């Protein structure tokens, strides 16, 4: 499934006074469960049994032999405790493990408090690249977190106490996942950083364009600055900082450094946002109850169910189907129905709708319209069920796409047959509409061809290479161009770029955004158009409506595809 490297090295408040020696010994609120043990149990529940814990010499013995606590040591089967003296050794151990990995590699802090669902999304991610969990900046609350700048869903600049970020818009939450094909890149970055980390100077972490310099961000991961000062004072006084080897916490953050190393080596790292779920580090015992309360306050199943609904659906799907279809998906999950079963049910209902359409009666047209609507509801449910239960397959994707086309075309046949069979002089009688049906089928096939060929061209086209920047450079000037200073924004050049700029601007206006989605006649609006016009009028009106609206949608889509192609 995955290999996990848990970095449990951060000292915490109270260490010098006989308290916990590291975050690896923090308790989860008022329970007896150790925070690190909770994280490892979460990983094990997700079938991640190959876990390696990196710890400082003062805490290794306690982790391997927890004494009378009754908990197994972290060197039990499936776990491995690695003794590491400093961040350079942390990085070398990570390089060793990643270099031998044949599976995705997770690098995460041992002081994390995460929702089970949030961790599951990282572990079960199906994309082969790299990702980092990020969240919006909270400088007034969390002034000591590594910051990043994101663009287009990627981390384009990452910071550490040695590397600067221009105009950061998010903070790194200490979870990094690298796909198996990029494990070598991770190992190389870790090795390079291990060789350099002792020679890299500290840097101001934030550079603001057109703003006053910000001094709130410091790369000291322990939030209590007073603790750092106290430890330094005790170390100077000869008390050896009680288990810290006389070294005060300096904010050495191996996961953050690895993120910097990957980004600066040109690896595309997806910025995966933490939204409704919880993923945060706790660095003092006093922070744990609040973190636990945050986890308990989230209904993870509701979040998972809501997120099963696609956020970019059309107007009809969003407001006439997805408002309740998610609950059907949950019902189906409880009865162990698979997405492919629901897809097949949707196809069967569409066939029954076509049979009613072919009857050529008013009742048949009304019932056919209702059944077509419910076939579309089930078509939405199968995808929501797949996302809710994480049941994805190539067969399922192929069935879904194939049956979408088959449902529509079988309905065309049923409508054309019913129009001919309807009694002359009745509203259901539309005459011989086979020519209109064939024309609608051809038009829809052309539309699918335009869409699929454009997407295929985008997939085949190589992604623009990202810049590679030496780790010895403190600032990020050579990375992705930072946001322009106020008043210096440039207008887009060329017709294609102008069209893309206008499209992006209209996305921010709710009414225009929905109008753009409706005009392209997506499948939801198309099925609604068929069902409503057939139930109220007849097949002739249905096919004429499809041809008129479909032609407009084709012209709009084709123009947009051409302009976007010119801009690339």
Brief characterization of the structure:
The chain is an alpha/beta fold and 568 residues long.
Give a structural overview:
With 568 residues, this protein is of the alpha/beta class. The protein folds into 2 domains: 3-297, Spore Coat Polysaccharide Biosynthesis Protein SpsA, Chain A, CATH 3.90.550.10; 308-461 and 492-567, CDP-alcohol phosphotransferase transmembrane (TM) domain (Four Helix Bundle (Hemerythrin (Met), subunit A)). The chain has 19 helices and 13 strands. The strands form 3 sheets. Strands 1, 2, 3, 4, 6, 7, 8, 10 and 12 form a 9-stranded mixed beta sheet that branches. α2 (57-64) links the parallel β2 (50-55) and β3. α16 crosses α19 (539-567). The radius of gyration is 29 Å and the shape is elongated. The two termini are 37 Å apart. Mean pLDDT is 84; it is low at 14-21 and 210-250.
Strand content range: 5-15%
CATH architecture of the largest domain: Alpha-Beta Complex
Task: Report on the biggest sheet.
Answer: 9 strands, mixed
Low-confidence stretches: 14-21, 210-250
The best one-word shape is elongated
Number of domains: 2
**How many strands?**
13
- The chain-level structural class is alpha/beta
Q: Which topology of the largest domain does CATH recognise?
A: Spore Coat Polysaccharide Biosynthesis Protein SpsA, Chain A
**CATH C-level name of the largest domain:** Alpha Beta
User: Quick check: average pLDDT?
Assistant: 84
């Amino acid at each position: 499934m995955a290999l996990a490297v848990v970095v449990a090295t951060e000292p915490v408040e109270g260490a010098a006074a006989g308290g916990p020696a590291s975050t690896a010994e923090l308790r989860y609120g008022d329970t007896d469960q150790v925070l690190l043990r909770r994280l490892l149990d979460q990983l094990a529940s997700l079938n991640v049994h190959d876990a390696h814990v990196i710890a400082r010499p003062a805490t290794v013995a306690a982790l391997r032999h927890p004494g009378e606590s009754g908990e197994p040591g972290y060197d039990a089967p499936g776990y491995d405790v690695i003794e590491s003296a400093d961040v350079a050794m942390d990085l070398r151990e990570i390089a060793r493990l990643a270099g031998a990995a044949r599976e995705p590699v997770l690098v995460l802090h041992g002081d994390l408090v995460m929702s089970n669902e949030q961790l599951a999304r990282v572990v079960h991610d199906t994309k082969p690249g790299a990702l980092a969990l990020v969240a919006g900046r909270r400088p007034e609350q969390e002034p000591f977190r590594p910051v990043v700048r994101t663009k287009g869903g990627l981390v384009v600049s990452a910071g550490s106490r040695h590397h600067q970020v221009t105009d950061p818009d998010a903070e790194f939450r200490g979870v990094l996942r690298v796909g198996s094909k990029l494990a070598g890149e991770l190992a190389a970055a870790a090795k390079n950083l291990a060789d350099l980390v002792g020679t890299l100077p500290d840097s101001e972490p934030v550079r603001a364009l057109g703003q006053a310099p910000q001094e709130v961000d410091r790369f000291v991961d322990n939030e209590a600055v007073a603790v750092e000062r106290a430890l330094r004072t005790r170390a100077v006084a000869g008390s050896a900082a009680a288990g810290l080897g006389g070294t005060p916490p300096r904010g050495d953050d191996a996961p953050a450094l690895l993120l910097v190393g990957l980004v600066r080596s040109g690896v595309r790292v997806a910025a995966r946002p933490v939204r409704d779920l919880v993923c945060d580090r706790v660095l003092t015992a006093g922070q744990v109850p609040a973190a636990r309360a945050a986890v308990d306050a989230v209904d993870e199943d509701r979040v998972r169910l809501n997120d099963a609904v696609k956020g970019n659906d059309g107007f009809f799907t969003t407001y006439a189907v997805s408002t309740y279809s998610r609950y059907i998906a949950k019902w189906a999950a409880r009865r162990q129905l698979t997405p492919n079963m629901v897809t097949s049910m949707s196809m069967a209902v569409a066939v029954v709708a076509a049979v009613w359409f072919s009857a050529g009666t008013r009742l048949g047209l009304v019932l056919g319209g209702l059944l077509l609507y419910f076939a579309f509801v089930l078509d939405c449910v199968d995808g929501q069920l797949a996302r809710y239960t994480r049941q994805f397959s190539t067969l399922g994707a192929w069935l879904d796409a194939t049956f979408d086309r088959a449902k529509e075309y079988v309905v065309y046949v049923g409508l054309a047959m019913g129009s001919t069979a309807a009694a002359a002089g009745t509203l259901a009688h539309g005459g011989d509409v086979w020519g209109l049906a064939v024309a609608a089928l051809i038009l829809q096939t052309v539309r699918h061809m335009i869409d699929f060929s454009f997407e295929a061209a985008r997939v085949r086209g190589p992604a623009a290479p990202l810049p590679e920047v030496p780790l010895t450079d403190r600032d990020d000037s050579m990375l992705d161009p930072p946001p322009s200073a106020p008043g210096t924004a440039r207008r887009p050049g060329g017709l294609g770029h102008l069209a893309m700029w206008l499209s992006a601007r209209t996305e921010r206006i709710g009414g225009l955004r929905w109008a753009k989605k409706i005009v392209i006649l997506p499948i939801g609006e198309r099925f609604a158009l068929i069902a409503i016009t057939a139930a109220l009028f007849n097949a002739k009106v249905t096919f004429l409506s499809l041809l008129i609206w479909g032609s407009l949608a084709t012209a709009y889509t084709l123009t947009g595809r051409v302009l976007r192609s010119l801009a690339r």
